[in-house]
Known about the structure:
This protein is α/β, with parallel strands linked by helices and 360 residues long. The chain has helices at 2-43, 56-69, 80-90, 104-112, 122-127, 184-197, 199-212, 221-229, 240-247, 252-259, 289-299, 302-312, 325-330, 341-345, 347-356, and strands spanning 46-51, 72-77, 98-102, 116-117, 139-152, 176-177, 235-239, 261-264, 274-283, 315-316. Helix 6 packs across helix 7, helix 6 (184-197) crosses helix 15 (347-356) and helix 9 crosses helix 10. The radius of gyration is 27 Å and the shape is globular.
Amino acid sequence: MRQKYVAGFLTLMMMAVFVLSACGSESSKGEEKAVENAGAAKKNQVVNVFTARHYDIDFALFDEFEKQTGIVVNEIKGTAEELVERMKREGESSEADLFITVDGGVLNYAKENGVLQPIKSDVINGNVPAKFRDKDNNWVGVATRARIIAYAKDRVKPEQLSTYEALTEEQWKGKVLVRTSGNLYNQSLVASMIALNGEAQTEQWAKGIAGNLARDPEGGDRDQAKAVVAGLGDLAIMNTYYVGQMLNSKDAEEVKVAQNIGIFFPNQSTTGTHLNISGIGLAAHAKNKENAIKLIEYMTGKEAQEKLINSSFEFPVNEKAEVPALHKEWGEFKTQELDYAKLNEFNKKATELMNKADWK
Ligand code: FE
């Protein structure tokens, strides 16, 4: 019994020696493999993009960048909140190199959550004016959009329009169309007004808008334009790029809608039209920092900017980029001068204020 035990013990020892030596040889093979992988990684460079902006043109530009540089762009899609949460939760082990989203407030939300870091690149600073970059360079703008007043060409003369504030006048009772308070574009517009006019005045304004609505808020920006052309109301608060996208739509109905609305840039003699921004932030724990910066340099370069704007109909951040004929037709306009951080700072207040005003 005891002998059997000893023999068993010896067998175990021998097995252990065998396993150890096997491990030894495995380990040197493993090292060889690691070296091989490092070589392959150099050949197959990557950049991981966490994006809340799911525009076809963004993905087409990533493909173009991939072709030009050999750097593979991996897209990880989600809502901005989901992506920021994930970057926070995963901390140093996060695979995110870049964070892309619409809305200057959301870009600052990411910054304040500590998931971004300063971008250092003379190329980017040359491509994008300081007003379209975070003051600590945690994010850089890639395109802008104006929230404007679209009007029924057959019923409204642009001379009747002036400011966002004037949309609360008696003459527009039952004529104004706009989406809900849950919509970020509206939240940022109202946040900008809190920053410029103060809370009390903005609360009064929101009440005035709610009182002049043609219907309970519903649908997206395009739906407001459609409702204007259908005669439900005369004026719609909407983003400029939808007009460009509808004019170039495969849907004949959308083209017709866009042809029948006029575009008015409000507040030209006062605080300027509300201009929001889409941008790219450099992830705090980016493992492919060089590649990430290269992709921002590409996205803000003249060539990519022109391709982007000709598809999304946003405005370029790079002043060297040639704008589409439609933008030339719209002409230059005065914009709000506002730190985009204010859109984040006043986001909650803006939503509360709209709900209180019954603009739901
Ligand atoms: Fe949109």
